[in-house]
Amino acid sequence: xxxxxxxxxxxxxxxxxxxxxxxxxxxxxxxxxxxxxxxxxxxxxxxxxxxxxxxxxxxxxxxxxxxxxxxxxxxxxxxxxxxxxxxxxxxxxxxxxxxxxxxxxxxxxxxxxxxxxxxxxxxxxxxxxxxxxxxxxxxxxxxxxxxxxxxxxxxxxxxxxxxxxxxxxxxxxxxxxxxxxxxxxxxxxxxxxxxxxxxxxxxxxxxxxxxxxxxxxxxxxxxxxxxxxxxxxxxxxxxxxxxxxxxxxxxxxxxxxxxxxxxxxxxxxxxxxxxxxxxxxxxxxxxxxxxxxxxxxxxxxxxxxxxxxxxxxxxxxxxxxxxxxxxxxxxxxxxxxxxxxxxxxxxxxxxxxxxxxxxxxxxxxxxxxxxxxxxxxxxxxxxxxxxxxxxxxxxxxxxxxxxxxxxxxxxxxxxxxxxx
Length: 420
What we know:
By secondary structure, this protein is mainly alpha-helical.
């Protein structure tokens, strides 16, 4: 089996393994969790030579998520206006599960593109309502732990699923159609678990009197509630965008290891190692976020990113690069769940879906910009420039945290909103 690294249009960086029969396996580097257990990590051979493109620069990373980002914003707003999160979340997971048979039956690139579109729309449809649902049903005193657990399980699925799929391909002699059929099972399990096992609290729609004062601008104009979110919530949205700008794509971790001499066959270990640290640390950090000021954790997490960037920029050998990769995973664990917790804490209960939609959109656009800039720096000035610029942006993010602590009042633990 020959392993290569390539870019896939819908998911950014992916590990690819060419089997003896010409089938292409992929391991996605961008976790989303829930239902994406395996199957959508594969491309049938109908795509070879047409949709799989070689790595050119970081700009491609995140571009394939555009549809999902827009869907997250729209679905988040819808969930607020409906007063319900579960229907949209269940529909999103169902679309993801039902896209798998289309991959298995695909006989042309057009059919594969259609299956990918359905999967991406499903991913976007469930994103913001799911996070808002977590915020709605988790008691305020354990909300950080809830988001930490979600991030941890999300990350486990991001690397366990592709590894399982790879093992099944070897066991079943490259029968990729069978893998897609198997992938339906965890997808449908996720749908059933959410539909039958999660009880959504009864809420009034955002247009009713319970939240009328906070949503007046959106209900009269039909807009996406841009002016109706509190200033503190917009600070968190902006902070999430700056954090994403400061963080290079995980693909550059793999490239850095390759640049130092790591063989292609071993490159999957880079993201696996990073995700193991991420998965193990996310829940404990989430629990800690319930006990200490969240901005303190975010500042510490950005300090860890600075350390990771400096190590990766100047690493003299593979051991040092490995340490940088582990620090990068720790940074993700210390920031992603905490940011989600702050979005939930600063948004009014009736506008949490909208808040998560805007948070995802801003962060996604920042990911696109960051990927393009990092790729250009790498191409023109080498690996060190990419990671040093990331470190500089991370220091800028620390400055924003300091400004945020002065201009908003969510730094102190006792002043974080605990609305249910």
